[in-house]
From TrEMBL:
<dbReference type="InterPro" id="IPR028098">
    <property type="entry name" value="Glyco_trans_4-like_N"/>
</dbReference>
<dbReference type="GO" id="GO:0016757">
    <property type="term" value="F:glycosyltransferase activity"/>
</dbReference>
<dbReference type="Pfam" id="PF13439">
    <property type="entry name" value="Glyco_transf_4"/>
</dbReference>
<protein>
    <submittedName>
        <fullName>Glycosyl transferase family 1</fullName>
    </submittedName>
</protein>
<dbReference type="InterPro" id="IPR050194">
    <property type="entry name" value="Glycosyltransferase_grp1"/>
</dbReference>
<dbReference type="Pfam" id="PF13692">
    <property type="entry name" value="Glyco_trans_1_4"/>
</dbReference>
<dbReference type="InterPro" id="IPR017522">
    <property type="entry name" value="Sugar_tfrase_PEP-CTERM_Stp2"/>
</dbReference>
<keyword id="KW-0808">Transferase</keyword>
<feature type="domain" description="Glycosyltransferase subfamily 4-like N-terminal">
    <location>
        <begin position="16"/>
        <end position="177"/>
    </location>
</feature>
């Protein structure tokens, strides 16, 4: 029987997405002798995505929270935590930050909240109500970390997270899984609609407002008008609440034969190896895991100058940065790469080197385990326990 301390990961929903993918990677890769893991979803989970968890014994619980205020969810979580008796509650983003008090009342020794990005309706973190909630919750947490330097600084300056509770934990990428395609590689993803002669711009991520795919579509349409002689194509891979509206927008722009929106995929690494340029049109971001996967795959990145994107994409070296919500600037950046395959190859190669040196999966897992270890050790001493921080 594994008596390692239990970590409960509290998220809004377990589904295809960058935060969720990296959570699963950490669970799968962290030594089983160090910690056990359970996932609590405030709403529910996608069974197809849940199958990505390969670590044995990871239970998934769903609280089926309804939209809006839901006091009953706090009670349900308290009861579940009393039953599970975890050593650590690790909540993610604003959607789960308010449950720190429930964890305290359930006698969970270590409580952590991670800031992995902001919502589309508050991309710059200026919503007073949301920030007041974040500040109110700080005393209930032992650590409030961020996954980008910009977000950590915002945590300190705006949310007033004290330095001893603040950390920056960068995302990591599996550079063995995500790698450049071979020059003569002919393997295409199932359903791939494009020909080898096409120049394919692509993006991967949840199709939601914060990703601003509308600007990406507008930039692609503008580029096609400027350079009708180029065989340009666009792939927008991912599921989300705006998927159908993006399909409709592509059709309204007359791009239905040039834009592929297949929804969620499980073969992202292969998809990336068939792209020529990766795009990030977000209006807010933490450390963009999808951009790191693209860089590990040898792709140059055209990204917006927001959040953690400039920390990852070195402008003019591994990609090109443009202002957010600016289709013209984005189209111009795409045009530079479409007109110069040599530049795209050079920036793509530099991007992979950057990932190998700064964003390895091993380093990410070690950093998170180090956070758990140090906080548990501190709480053990504080509480006078001798065997585990769950006591």
């Amino acid at each position: 029987m594994n008596d390692a301390p239990l970590i409960v990961h509290l998220i809004y929903r377990l589904d295809f997405g960058g935060l969720e993918s990296l959570l699963v990677e950490r669970i799968n890769r962290m030594p089983a002798s160090a910690y056990r893991h359970a996932i609590v979803c405030l709403t529910d989970s996608n069974p197809a995505f849940a199958r990505k968890i390969t670590r044995a014994g990871v239970a998934i619980h769903a609280l089926h929270k309804q939209p809006g205020q839901s006091p009953g969810t706090h009670v349900a979580l308290w009861r579940l935590l009393r039953e599970l008796r975890p050593a650590v509650l690790h909540s993610y983003n604003l959607s789960a930050v308010e449950y720190g008090p429930a964890a305290l009342l359930a006698s969970v020794p270590v409580r952590i909240n991670g800031a992995h990005g902001r919502d589309h309706d508050d991309p710059h973190g200026t919503n007073r109500k949301h920030n007041a909630l974040r500040r109110l919750m700080v005393p209930f947490y032992d650590c409030c970390y961020a996954n980008s330097a910009a977000m950590e600084q915002w945590n300190r300056d705006v949310i007033r997270v004290p330095p001893y509770k603040s950390r920056m934990l960068a995302n990591g990428i599996d550079a063995e899984r995500f790698h450049p395609g071979l020059p003569d590689e002919t393997v295409r993803p199932d359903g791939w609609p494009f020909d080898p002669a096409h120049f394919v711009i692509g993006t991967v991520g949840r199709v939601q407002a914060v990703k601003d795919h509308a600007t990406l579509l507008a930039a692609f349409a503008l580029l096609r008008e400027r350079r009708p002689e180029l065989p340009l194509r666009l792939a927008i891979v991912g599921d989300g609440p705006l998927l159908e509206s993006m399909r409709a927008k592509a059709a309204s722009l007359g791009l239905q034969d040039a834009v592929w929106l297949p929804g969620a995929r499980t073969d992202i690494a292969q998809v990336l190896r068939n792209l020529h340029v990766f795009a990030m049109s977000s209006i807010a971001e933490g450390t963009p895991g999808s951009a790191l996967e693209a860089m590990a795959s040898g792709l140059p990145v055209v990204g917006t100058r927001v959040g953690g994107i400039p920390e990852v994409v070195d402008d003019g070296v591994t990609g090109l940065l443009v202002p957010p919500s600016d289709p013209g600037a984005m189209a111009a950046a795409f045009e530079r790469y479409a007109g110069s395959p040599e530049l795209a190859a050079r920036h793509g190669a530099a991007g992979r080197e950057r990932v190998l040196h700064k964003y390895s999966m091993t380093a990410m897992v070690a950093a998170y385990q180090g956070m758990y270890d140090s906080l548990c050790e501190r709480k053990i001493k504080t509480r006078g326990a001798v065997t585990s921080c769950a006591e």
